[in-house]
Amino acid sequence: MFFLHELERTITLHPSFFGPRTKEYLTTRLLEDVEGTCSGQYYIICVLDAFSISEGRVVPGSGVAEYTIQYRAVVWRPFKGETVDAIVTSVNRMGVFADVGPLPVFVSNHLIPPDIKWDPNATPPQYTDNGDQVIEKGTHLRIKLIGTRSDVGRRFDGSPKRQDKYAVI
Hints:
By secondary structure, the protein is mostly beta strands. The protein has one helix spanning 22-34; strands spanning 2-13, 43-53, 57-58, 65-76, 83-92, 95-100, 103-108, 117-119, 126-128, 134-135, 140-144, 147-151, 154-158. The radius of gyration is 22 Å and the shape is elongated.
């Protein structure tokens, strides 16, 4: 689910960047540093604006200045039970790996409908019902998240497909 969050970040700036365009440089640096990153709980999709940039504080002994920037960003946090669209990145006999934007997802073969079977002789590797349903690399799936796990700066999710309304799209 997408949210609008107010966040804060401290950026260190070398003295060579001090001058009339300091705020412009800080905003550019903020965009480069945070857009597309994962905090462990959510992904920062887009920074909308930096609404407060503090006065710089010189760090004793180094000459660099620290600025605290408050900004608004669109973030995405996947929830258990959420239905999402994914693109298959890898298929093996254990299941299917897919990406939901920046989020890697695994669909176990136990959660794939029983009429769709692993075909070890196919090239490329795939799950198929020997009809019109084929799950291979590049296939678009609609899946429901059943669990999440997060590491430092990363998230992983597990997803079922064993429901009639979730299928290849």
